[in-house]
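Design request, tokens follow.
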């Protein structure tokens, strides 16, 4: 099944095409591995990971769109208004970075329940130690986190700050 990169499409499953990812990777000096079918699967997973991991500002532009982007009422990023009828270049690049991480073995959807194998406590002067086996959280993908940061909504005690 080929990728669907239709902006705002009800069946869209990627923000970038396979050719765009290949061109970007070549320009960055990365070598993509696997068949085209495997790479398409990676791009689908990367788009889903972006949409699942991050809470973006604004809201979906169309009611029936499959992916989180395009978005309306995002506001300004880097001094420019984010268009509601397009996918920002940074979001597309974030998907390609996420896809590269997935291709290299990062699982953006890990099982996050770990098992406690040892625990110790003290009372004075306070000490606590816990050792887990298994996943305890999702892996950080610093390049992606850095790229999408300006597009995230504030929340959880975080306030938005805008330069006048």
């Amino acid at each position: 099944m080929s990728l669907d990169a239709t902006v705002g499409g009800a069946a869209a499953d990627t923000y970038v095409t396979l050719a765009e990812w290949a061109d970007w990777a070549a320009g960055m000096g990365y070598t993509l591995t696997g068949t085209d079918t495997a790479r398409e699967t990676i791009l689908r997973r990367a788009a889903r990971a972006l949409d699942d991991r991050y809470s973006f500002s604004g809201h979906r532009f169309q009611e029936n769109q499959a992916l989180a982007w395009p978005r309306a009422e995002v506001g300004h990023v880097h001094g420019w208004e984010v268009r509601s009828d397009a996918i920002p270049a940074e979001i597309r690049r974030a998907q390609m970075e996420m896809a590269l991480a997935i291709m290299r073995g990062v699982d953006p959807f890990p099982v996050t329940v770990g098992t406690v194998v040892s625990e110790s406590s003290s009372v004075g002067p306070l000490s606590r130690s816990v050792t887990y086996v298994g996943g305890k959280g999702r892996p950080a993908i610093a390049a992606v986190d850095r790229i999408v940061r300006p597009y995230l909504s504030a929340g959880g005690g975080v306030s938005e700050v805008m330069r006048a």
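Comment from the thread starter after seeing the answer: thanks! The longest strand covers residues 115-122.
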